[in-house]
Specification:
globular; mainly beta; 5-stranded antiparallel beta sheet; 10 strands; about 190 residues
């Protein structure tokens, strides 16, 4: 029997700022109660003051019967959709009642005009499953505090000016007009941006 369905029943999320690497290490514990969830998908969104490193995403399945844990493979075990504002994992196979752990890293995106000031970084994870109605449940949010470096060197911000030009391959000094560019972070265009 699945208790009152809320995302917190299935998800626990924590984050920790590594001051040496200046990265936030996020951990999401999935199905810690070992309930039978079917056809599930997970969305991590509402990113505040951070940018997630897609390459760091690691989904690990813990098989309680064998005591073994193994990283699942994107494209074989799950599909990953990644944009500059969220990512989504859809399972391609049954995980039964196994626990899973999702680990990933992010970098801070410092607020502008805030050298030496404290700020918060957060994101929210939510789950959907075919046999559990979580439509009324809010996601689980984790928040990490950081401080903007007090020096101006190496501080990344949300916005910047960018000039992009297209040149002729054979004559690099010749600028081409009427060229369109699409710039985005992530591996897919975010239609809501």
């Amino acid at each position: 029997v699945i208790p009152t369905p809320v995302n917190a029943t299935f998800l626990k999320k924590t984050g920790h700022l590594d001051v040496v690497t200046n990265k936030i290490n996020w951990t999401v514990e999935i199905n810690d109660n070992q309930l039978n969830i079917q056809n599930w998908q997970l969305t991590d969104s509402q990113w505040k003051q951070l940018k997630i490193d897609r390459a760091s995403i690691d989904l690990i399945e813990h098989n309680e019967a064998t005591g073994l844990s193994s990283s699942l493979k994107e494209g074989q075990d799950y599909v990953l959709t990644f944009t500059e504002r969220y990512f989504e994992i859809k399972m391609l196979r049954i995980t039964n009642e196994n626990k899973l752990t999702l680990n990933y890293e992010s970098q801070p995106v410092y607020p502008t005009n805030s050298l030496g000031q404290s700020f918060e970084m957060s994101n929210t994870v939510a789950m959907l499953a075919s046999n559990v109605d979580l439509s009324e449940s809010k996601g689980v949010t984790a928040t990490v505090e950081g401080t903007v470096p007090a020096t101006e060197g190496g501080v990344a911000t949300k916005t910047a000016n960018l000039v992009v030009t297209k040149t002729d391959e054979d004559t690099p000094t010749k600028l081409l007009s009427e060229v369109e560019f699409t710039l985005y972070r992530g591996d897919q265009v975010d239609a809501n941006k």
